[in-house]
Amino acid sequence: MATTITERKTLWNDVWDRVLDKMRDSINDKAIYDSFFADTSIYNIDGNHMTIMVSTDFARSIIEKNYRADLLNTVTEVTETNFILEFISKQEASIQAVPQVESKPKNSFFENSEINPNYTFDNFVVGPSNIEAKQAALMIASNPGKFYNPLFIYSNSGLGKTHLLHAIGNYIKVRNPRLNVLYITTDNFVDEYIKFVKGDRESDGLKDFFRTVDVLLVDDIQFLANKDKTQEMFFYAFQTLINSNKQIVLTSDRQPLDLNGLEERLVTRFSSGLLSKIEQPDTPTSIAILKKKIEANGLEISRFDDAALEFLAQNFGNNVRELEGALNRLVFYTINIKQSSHIDLALAQESVPTSHKSKEKKLNESKIISVVADYYNLTPSQLTGKIRTSEISMARHIAIYLCREILDMPFTKIGQTFGGKDHSTVMSAVKKVEKELKTSEQLKTVIKELKNRLK
Ligand code: ADP
Ligand code: MG
Fold first, then answer.
1. If you measure from the C-alpha of residue 139 to the centroid of ligand 1, how many angstroms do you get, rounded to a whole number?
2. pLDDT digit string, tens, across residues 181-194
3. 260: left (phi over 0), alpha (psi -120 to 50) or beta
4. Residue 404 in contact with residue 414, Cβ under 8 Å?
5. Nearest to 233, CA basis, from 246, 251, 218
6. Mean pLDDT score of the chain
7. What is the pLDDT of residues 45-54, one digit of tens each?
8. Which of 223, 346, 347, 348 is 20 to 30 A from 208 in CA distance terms?
9. 173 within 8 A of 165, measured Cβ to Cβ
10. Ligand 1 mutation pick, 163, 183, 323, max ligand atoms within 8 A of CB
């Protein structure tokens, strides 16, 4: 029995939403994204050919010229499948353009930060590993500023911290729409602060701005380390909110005490509310997460043998992001390669690419990119892409440095790997890291840790 057209379309839509989420982050330019990407969709998938529908012939030429590589990386990452991309414009497909949804007016600060409606409490699967964090988050969301302040959630990467932050935001927006909820990444905060200091602003009210925020959700606070001036501003914002009983929720990859390079007074304050750790899900929880994702993809759960799900849970359960990746790959493999509708253990095993199986053994540039990206909570395509926020640039330089140092790759080849940079750009990135390594203890620690993870 083959899959129906409707099932395929639902799956495509879901996949494309994820691709677009990543592209939006990676392009990091709302005007460009809205004009060229917001209106795209998967037109067809035939074998390993994916045809993407874009709004106009012009958009098609822009995307093909400037964003093809980035888009391909993203599609590969989301589907875990090597597709060949093709484009078709709406004119060509003679389909009416869908009217654009008007976006609401934005804050003068943090213009690009949004709460992701896809991350809710409802679709957060609970197990022993995360129940406490979920309960704490829900308590906060139903009564902001009243219980623990701040709530500090920490865990390894891919275990649901960002999901919970957005879930808090979504919950409050429905129950308490008058409250001004702001979700930002620490990277956003650093960039905003830099713009603010450079006077790149009409008003000079970053401090005033924080007085208007009722609930502040800050993701990945570990990236505030060693940024003294920014920490000062963050401290100010933090105190302003806490003093007026406004809720703060922070996430991090480690507990406050382990945040090296952070001012003592921040560490103390971060620890003064509730600390909650998320552990790796156990196998039953991982299976429940898989079932939730299958449902969300509009697929029939009865198609999947328990053994297939158990296989994925056991092999990928230490990181839910990877677990999702493995499921996507399995579904794509089943639909596009095997053309079959029943998913058993053998199929699940086959769907794991050899590159993944041997990934642990052989060190190559993809492994370096994925380890560095993971360390900085970025996607591999952000790391090899073009955005230049301070955090991403630093991470990119480090990845480039490691490719040179460990693999001794030629500069030109590194350049190609990192989105078509020329030889001299790569060389100066390597030099920059080498120079900084002579003076920065912090960087030495980072490089040591990364090399460890690459072993
Ligand atoms: P982190 O911020 O800790 O790195 P994320 O919140 O980005 O992790 O989670 C990675 C992915 O895994 C997201 O797509 C998220 O929705 C999903 N995820 C993590 N934990 C759960 C869970 N308990 N239930 C459902 N999905 C989850
Ligand atoms: Mg996160």
1. 19
2. 999 999 899 988 88
3. beta
4. yes
5. 218
6. 88
7. 877 789 999 9
8. 223
9. no
10. 163
